[in-house]
Structure of DUF58 domain-containing protein:
Amino acid sequence: MNRTAAELRAEAEAALTGVPALMLSAERLAAAATPGAHGKRRAGTGEDFWQYRPAAPGDTARSIDWRRSARSDAQFVRDREAEVAQSAVIWVSGAAGMDFSGAATRPRKADRANLLALALALALLGSGERVALAGQPPRTGRLQAERMGQALVARTRLDVDEDMPPAEALRPGQRVILFDDFLGDPAPALAYLQRAAGFGVQGAMLQVLDPDEQGFPYSGAVLFRSGSGVLRHDTRDAAGLREAYLARLAERREMLSRAALQAGWHFGTHDTAVPPAQALMWLWSVLEG
C-alpha cells in the first residue's frame, strides 16, 4: 500500500525525535569503551611529540633536535605522531529480520547495531578519520556524527531478508564495517568480501543476534518465519530442531569467519543481552590494530 506524503512526513518527524537519545547513548558508550582521539602512533607530520630517536642517514640538519642532542654524544631527531586522516565506511543492515527482539527487555537488533555503529563513528571521528555511512561521502567532525545519527534513525525497514551494500561502491584505501545478523543467504556477503579483497579494502563484520537466536529456547508447537514473512516453517516439536539449528549456526559462523580471514577482514559476534561496550572494544581493537 502506498503511503501518503503526510504519513511519510509524520514517520520522518517521529524518527528524528530519537536522534538526541541515540547520540547521547553513543557518546557515552564511545567515551567509556574507546580511548578517544589520538594519533596513529607512528612517525609522521602531526603536531604531537611521539619519541626521540637517534639520527640516521637521510635526516637533515633541520630535523635534528639540538637541545636534546647536546645532552649526549649522539644526535637525536624529534619524531611526531602521524595524524593521517583515513576513510571508514559503516553499514547497518536494513533487512526485516533486524527488527527482531525475543523479549521486551532487550533491544531490537537494529537498535543495538545503530548504537554500536554511531559509537564507533564517534570514536573514529575523534581519532581524525573521515567516516560515513555507506552511500554517503566520508567527512570529519562532530556534524558528520549528527548526520549519521539522523540517517540511522530515519531509515525505513526493507521488506526483504537479505541486505548488503553495493560492492561497486568499494574504493581502495577504505575500511568498511558491516553490522548484520548474517542469517540470510550468505552468497551476497561472500561476494562482497571477495570484491573487497580484490580492492585491498579491509574491514570488520559484526553479527548481531538476539539471545533467542543464539540458544534456540523453543519447544512445542511453533510457527517460525523470516522477518519478511516469505519463509515459514511450522513444527509441533521445536525442541527437536534445536541441535540441528545450533549446528547450522555454528557452520554459518565458521564459514563467515574463514571468508573474512581470507579477505583480510575480521568477523565477530554480539549478543544483544550483553552490554554493547564489549562489542565496541572488539571493533576498536581490530580496526586500530
Notes: The CA atoms of residues 30 and 119 lie 5 Å apart. Confidence is low (pLDDT under 50) at residues 10-16, 37-47. The radius of gyration is 23 Å.
